[in-house]
Every structure is written in structure tokens, then in C-alpha cells.
Amino acid sequence: MVRTPATIDVFNAIADAHRREILDVLVGGEMPVGAIVDEIAISQPQVSKHLRVLSQIGLVRCRAVGRHRLYRLNPSCLRPLHEWAAKYESLQNGRLDRLDDYLTELQHPHSHGNTNQQGET
Question: How many Cα atoms occupy the beta-carbon half-sphere of 81 within 13 Å?
Fold first, then answer.
């Protein structure tokens, strides 16, 4: 059975929950594999496998310090995801703005209409 590589794009790379966990851990800063393993509940070989995928797509960078490899997040590679999500964010913001207008109208029902309604019969 031939598997489609997860490194086609950022969307496929972050489709895996463990990879997202690794990215979440790396938001805190650069760290070695052992520290990442300590933070999440999967084995060192599995973490290394996921780091390899994230590195291939560019989401994670690695540098050697002596015998250790330190991994860090490369957030600029998340740009395609951010651009895609931005369309939906603006849609949601428009809905929230309309909800805010509606709630304001409910709180102040006389502010948009006739302001002198007290003495009228």
C-alpha cells in the first residue's frame, strides 16, 4: 500500500494531532527531542518521526549544538494556513459585529427611533 506523503503542504503536515502537539510545545521556544518527549505522551521515535515531517515542510527548524539537536518553530511557514483561515475569520467577525449591533439595539431600543416618546398618547 502506497501512502501519500504528509509533507505535500502545511495542511497535510498539521493534520496529525501529535504534530500539532509538537508545534504547541515549540511555541515555548527551542528544545531538544527529549524535552519534547517529556511534554507529550508519545515515544521518542514517534516524536522524531513527526519532527522529520515538520522539518521537511519547513514548519520546524533544527540546529546542532554539540551532540544535541535543538528544534524550533518556523512560524512563517504557517502563512498559507493563516491566509486560508483569514477568509473565515472575516466572515465570523462580520457576524459578531451584527450580533453586537443587535444586542446594543436590545439594550437601548429608543436610541435609533423617535426619541420623544414619553409624553405621547
Answer: 13
Of 78, 45, 14, residue with least CA distance to 36 = 45
Give the SS3 label for residue 41.
Answer: coil
* Degrees, nearest 5: CA angle 27-29-35: 100
Going edge to edge, which strands form the sheet with 68-73?
A: 31-32, 68-73, 60-65
pLDDT tens series, the chain, 121 aa: 445 555 578 888 999 999 999 999 999 999 999 999 999 989 999 999 999 999 999 999 999 999 999 999 998 888 888 888 888 887 787 888 888 888 888 888 776 555 455 555 4
First-to-last C-alpha distance (Å) of the chain: 81
Position 64, amino acid: A
